[in-house]
Amino acid sequence: MIREENIRLIFGLKIKQLRQMKGWSLLELSKISGLSPSYLNEIEKGKKYPKANKIVSLAEVFNVTYDDLVSLKLAGPLAPMSDLLRSNIITDLPLNIFGFDLGKMVESLHNSPAKVGAFVSTIVEIARNYEKQKERFYFAALRSYQEVHNNYFQEMEEGCDYFVKKFDIDPHQAFSYERAISILTERYDYNVEEYSLEEYPELKSNRYVRIPGKEKDILLLNPKLSTNQRLFVVGRELAFNILKVKKRANISMLVEVNSFDHILNNFLASYCAAAVLINRDRLQEDLDALFDNVKWNGQQFLNMLSKYQVSPDVLMHRMTGLIPKFMGIKDLIFLRYQHDLQKDRFELTKELYLGNTTNPAMNQPWQHYCRRFNGMSLLNEIVQTQVTDGPRKPIVAVQIIQHLSTDEEYFCITVARDLLPTPNLNSSVTIGFKISPQFRKKVKFWNDPSIVRTVVNTTCEACHIMDCKERVAEPEEVLKRQNSLEVKEALDKLQQEYI
Asked: What CATH fold (topology level) applies to the domain 4-128?
């Protein structure tokens, strides 16, 4: 459904277009219509929508029908803006969080209709494919939102500080699952139970189901969840209540994304849960101790997972927000790959690029990601151990990567693990630090000689290292570009023969 403010903007555009076609000023239109210049100005800016009797008067002034005036279609160079304002791309995205003022775009459209209209047409073209790729569009918007804020949200941090103080939680001790459950059940009137996997095998990969009730909400947990997973689910549920969120998903599985608000609120709840579980001052102390080592200590890093009772995803995502803010290391990447063992398919499921960083991964879902990168190689390694040992603890590795197409180097920490309770699914998470003077100053083990340096690329299809032992697919894109160059050279040679 089109928003009320967008209806006002379309009507205002139409009035201004008709007035300019007549060659009238606002003052002249005021004298003819009997409406004040200030009121007409508010209409044209989309701030006011006149009552029916005034619309009738304006229709008579412009010699158009009432229906034409209130329709949601615009003519000429304004037509693209009408399409944009009526599209879901505008309805669903809360543009205010990006500081985007639609009203100012409308004003620009009048000043330079051809140029702005062409830009709007481009957005409309994207919007036409919007429904087909809605989820990806939403997550791309969320990623941009996180990158703009360097993945640190002061208001959320202050809210978490208030929560910790309100419930007398010791920030220097681990926040226990039992304490989280007691707050959720006693203060927020929840019943927490488990659902039956025998009765609902379709929900084996799902982590929770929330059932809103008149008196009490019910939170049903997957019985296969670990204590850490249960803690994070309950922590998110507390965050939803503290934030007073209404637009949210009631299951963990991404069955259907109804709006961007669902995605954004889901992220904010996860952010708050992580902020409570991983106190920023404690984490800074632990990172200072880790970075003060002359040699890389993988076990020391893994110990933080146990200390905070969180997954590698939660810990490393928290690091991306705190390290630039408090340690001055500004340029970071965060990448998460998943490996579906049944389909033997690898997918880049999350990515963040903070500061002045390039994109060393690039989401190419139908290509084969570079196997030289630890984010991929550890997924193969953990499969080999699972065959003999069954489910196992996370494994960690570090490497220094240099992207083939740039001179930039990144120090990467990667953790791989299985994604139980989801069967046949493994995940690797990487946090990468651009090797800058500030990074070298802060992290003493950056030049540990035991750490392997590796040249990596995005995908096999785009890589021109022909003798790569890790290659799993032909360099189709490279060969295609090479063929184009050969065709061009042949044409140039042919043309020279006739000059």
From this structure: 434 Repressor (Amino-terminal Domain) (1.10.260)
